[in-house]
């Protein structure tokens, strides 16, 4: 049985790619230096996988920003607005498409960005026009194959499949469907694959994740056409057709009869599909069994994986099987060896974990065990694995006494506000005294080099906790004063004490631990270090009150308390897999509920509970969504409903499609929802037109994932567009997302323009500025010192 991997992390064991990209963007290094870092990382990744014993090693899985963007460049699908940049190096053009371009007399917006299926990875959305043409404009796939081949690697190029590539994109004009472009696209794919075959590639991995979704008949037919034509155009190549994140289900007959060499199965998400797939497949078809979890970090249970493999061997024999992870290892950190003594995980938990390097080893171990079931060495490896699995299952770290009883006491009254939105909004208007089109930000302000250095000094013991707190307070004071001067209506404290919106909370919860180097890519150079939820989750004490109350006391304007919601903490953590995700979400919701109440008691009249991962956590198949949406809504309402009518609850969601879950978004019953809409030019608000959202909405008017500063006129145009969907009394003005990744000069310029845009709309709406009065402290709250 051959072993292979679907993809390896890109950012480097120590985030070398992140640092190299950001140095290049800042003008502190050359393009040659950046490319050299990429070459070094690719070599390291290939050698690591070969040393583990992997038979087929992926190439072209590396990207300096995003693999979908790379595919757009490869096939020449460059949006027309970037034509003035045609003379730039290919890498600079890619970065302009990803980040926008505002220099040399040009002002070009970035391509839209959204979530990669149900992950926290973001891809750049391809843009298509009716007259779209395709040509090979990048030899990246071939170059990296030849690079690997020169190092002696048995390399397997990875390509995003043609149907999924088109489906991931958007039509930028009416009158056609993007799948109508398939006929023009296929010759380009055939040319790419022919070049790879002629260069010596025996296998090509073609990723078609849309095969794990519900498909319309036109998509089904597109698959048949695509692979018939690719087989005809490149008859010698062996295609490994991969899908992941769910089972093939009703697409089994389609997938197994496409003219490909191998079909990959995600047996972590859908182990139940194996028997049906094996029974439906023609005799010559081979299978890649994705038995090692590419999405989570727990060590593989060899006995469970071997049971699936033996079932496959009994059905088709071992010669038609490959062993692999369930999906690309892009979604997990690099190496548990980096964690010894450096993180905030109980030492015993470390032996329960497997990162990318360990997962490649597990693939090879499982293949060996399946091929040598009677050998003493196989028996020893199997026994060692079983012992680790058992130690985890029986660990006292998993359970917290008293939590189960508290969860059992949750009643329907705990899941709803005291009054309807109409009643609440009147009370909140009286309490907050906000103008029409109130302005605010999503919460975070720039995380500067000085702030990161400050945290490092605290970790190293170079400063004490009091010095650290004084420095954070100084940052908060400066941020509050600037917001007042800029004319922002609802202020935030800036989240300077938080390196990450999920990690910060996880560190204050029992049942959570943290790695030292467990970074994964979110988009571009943005990396996150997800918490490890290994046991029952309980709040240790107040998590944010100190900082929010300090900021509240600095201003007469409303100050928002900033929290991360239970679904997002769950989705953006490596969650335990020994209980239903619903149960972990309820535990998290109780912890956030306690924090919400403490913030209200401290005098915060506006509390934001961010849920950017709410849509992301939804199953890909429509038939599986009802259960998830039920418990996800319940978790948010449990977290948010324990406050008085006068307390305004906000939530934030970004870079997701909401059209098909609008009733559930409304069921959250947040007083204000802020969403990302600027990259799509308010296109996402069409969902709010079809479904009349009953509460207030803040559509983002500028993109925080690009250094480009939009003009006042741009924002006014977007807000006027928003008014065709949202009544002016319920329209808020805000950025797309938090501003932690931006520089202060960009942040101040963009927010000043945003405030100016809101003022223009107020003048157009016949409403003058509202003078905000000093607001009394909430009942029972401590007075400001």
What is the secondary structure topology, with strand pairs?
Blueprint: E1 2-3, H1 16-25, H2 31-52, E2 57-59, H3 67-74, H4 90-99, E3 101-103, E4 106-108, E5 113-115, E6 122-124, E7 127-128, H5 140-150, E8 155-160, H6 162-168, E9 170-171, H7 182-198, E10 203-207, H8 217-233, E11 238-242, H9 252-256, E12 262-266, H10 274-280, E13 286-292, H11 302-316, E14 321-325, H12 347-350, H13 356-371, H14 376-393, H15 403-408, H16 421-432, H17 449-459, H18 465-486, H19 503-506, E15 509-513, E16 520-523, E17 526-528, E18 532-539, H20 545-552, E19 560-564, H21 566-571, H22 581-601, E20 606-610, H23 625-640, E21 648-653, H24 662-667, E22 672-675, H25 686-690, E23 696-699, H26 712-722, H27 744-764
Parallel strand pairs: 1-14, 2-8, 7-9, 8-10, 10-11, 11-12, 12-13, 13-14, 19-20, 20-21, 21-22, 22-23
Antiparallel strand pairs: 3-4, 5-6, 15-18, 16-17
Helix pairs in contact: 1-2, 7-8, 10-11, 11-13, 17-18, 22-23, 26-27
Protein described:
This protein has 785 residues and is an alpha/beta fold. It has 2 domains: 2-331, TIM Barrel, CATH 3.20.20.210; 403-446 and 482-764, TIM Barrel. 40% of the residues lie in helices and 12% in strands. The protein is built from 27 helices and 23 strands. The strands form 7 sheets. It has an 8-stranded parallel sheet with strand order 1-14-13-12-11-10-8-2. Helix 22 packs parallel to helix 23 (625-640) and helix 26 crosses helix 27 (744-764). It is globular, with a radius of gyration of 26 Å.
């Amino acid at each position: 049985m051959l072993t292979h991997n679907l993809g390896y992390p890109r950012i480097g064991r120590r985030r070398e790619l992140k640092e190299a990209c950001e140095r290049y963007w800042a003008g502190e290094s050359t393009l040659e230096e950046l490319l050299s870092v990429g070459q070094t990382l690719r070599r390291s990744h290939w050698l690591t996988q070969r040393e583990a014993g992997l038979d087929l090693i992926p190439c072209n899985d590396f990207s300096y920003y995003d693999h979908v963007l790379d595919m757009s460049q490869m096939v020449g699908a460059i949006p027309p607005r970037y034509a003035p940049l045609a003379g730039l190096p290919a890498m600079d053009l890619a970065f302009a498409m990803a980040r926008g371009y505002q220099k040399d007399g040009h002002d070009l917006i970035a391509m839209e960005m959204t979530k990669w299926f149900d992950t926290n990875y973001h891809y750049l959305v391809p843009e298509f026009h009716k007259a779209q043409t395709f040509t090979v404009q990048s030899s990246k796939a071939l170059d990296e194959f030849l690079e690997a081949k020169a190092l002696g690697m048995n390399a397997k190029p990875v390509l995003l499949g043609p149907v999924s590539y088109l489906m991931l994109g958007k039509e930028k004009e009416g009158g056609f469907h993007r799948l109508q472009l398939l006929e023009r696209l296929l010759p380009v794919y055939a040319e790419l694959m022919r070049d790879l075959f002629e260069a010596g590639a025996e296998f090509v991995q073609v990723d078609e994740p849309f095969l794990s979704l519900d498909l319309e008949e036109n998509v089904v037919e597109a698959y048949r056409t695509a692979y018939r034509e690719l087989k005809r155009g490149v008859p010698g190549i062996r295609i490994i057709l991969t899908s992941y994140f769910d089972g093939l289900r009703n697409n089994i007959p389609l997938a197994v009869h496409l003219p490909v060499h191998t079909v990959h199965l995600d047996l972590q998400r859908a182990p139940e599909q194996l028997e049906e797939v094996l029974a439906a497949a023609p005799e010559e078809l081979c299978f890649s069994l994705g038995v090692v979890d590419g999405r989570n970090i727990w060590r593989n249970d060899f006995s469970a994986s071997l049971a699936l493999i033996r079932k496959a061997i009994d059905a088709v024999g071992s010669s038609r099987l490959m062993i692999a992870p369930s999906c690309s290892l892009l979604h997990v950190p690099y190496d548990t060896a980096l964690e010894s003594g450096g993180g905030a995980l109980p030492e015993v938990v470390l032996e329960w974990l497997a990162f990318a390097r360990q997962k490649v080893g597990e693939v090879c171990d499982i293949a060996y065990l399946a091929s040598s079931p009677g050998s003493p060495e196989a028996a020893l490896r199997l026994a060692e694995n079983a012992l680790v699995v058992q130690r985890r299952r029986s660990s006292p770290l998993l359970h917290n006494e008293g939590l189960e009883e508290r969860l059992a006491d949750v009643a329907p009254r705990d899941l709803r506000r005291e009054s309807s939105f109409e009643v609440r909004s009147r009370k909140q208007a009286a309490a907050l005294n906000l103008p029409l089109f109130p302005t605010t930000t999503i919460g975070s302000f720039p995380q500067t080099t000085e702030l990161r250095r400050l945290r490092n000094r605290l970790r190293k013991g170079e400063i004490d906790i009091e010095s650290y707190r004084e420095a954070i307070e100084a940052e908060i004071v400066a941020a509050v004063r600037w917001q007042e001067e800029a004319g922002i209506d609802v202020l935030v404290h800036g989240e300077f004490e938080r390196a990450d919106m999920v990690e910060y909370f996880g560190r204050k919860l029992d049942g959570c631990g943290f790695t030292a180097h467990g970074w994964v890519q979110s988009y571009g150079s943005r990396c996150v270090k997800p918490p490890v939820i290994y046991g029952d989750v309980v709040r240790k004490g107040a998590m944010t009150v100190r900082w929010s109350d300090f900021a509240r006391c600095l201003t007469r304007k409303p100050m928002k308390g900033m929290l991360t919601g239970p679904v997002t903490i769950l989705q953006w953590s490596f969650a335990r897999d020994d209980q239903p995700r619903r149960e972990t979400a309820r535990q998290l919701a109780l912890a956030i509920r306690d924090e919400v109440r403490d913030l209200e008691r401290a005098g915060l009249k506006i509390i934001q509970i961010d849920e950017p991962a709410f849509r992301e956590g939804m199953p890909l198949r429509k038939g599986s969504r009802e259960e998830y949406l039920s418990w996800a809504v319940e978790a948010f309402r449990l977290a948010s409903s324990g406050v008085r009518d006068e307390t305004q609850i906000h939530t934030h969601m970004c870079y997701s499609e909401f059209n098909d879950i609008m009733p559930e978004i409304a069921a959250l019953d947040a007083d204000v929802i802020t969403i990302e809409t600027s990259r799509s030019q308010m296109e996402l608000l069409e969902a709010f037109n079809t479904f009349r959202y009953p509460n207030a909405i803040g559509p983002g008017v500028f993109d925080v994932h690009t250094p480009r500063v939009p003009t006042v006129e741009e924002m006014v145009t977007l807000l006027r567009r928003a008014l065709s969907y949202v009544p002016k009394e319920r329209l808020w003005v805000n950025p797309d997302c938090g501003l932690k990744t931006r520089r202060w000069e960009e942040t101040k310029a963009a927010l000043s323009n945003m405030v100016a845009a809101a003022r223009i709309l107020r003048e157009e709406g016949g409403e003058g500025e509202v003078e905000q009065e000093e607001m009394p402290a909430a009942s029972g709250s401590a007075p400001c010192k």
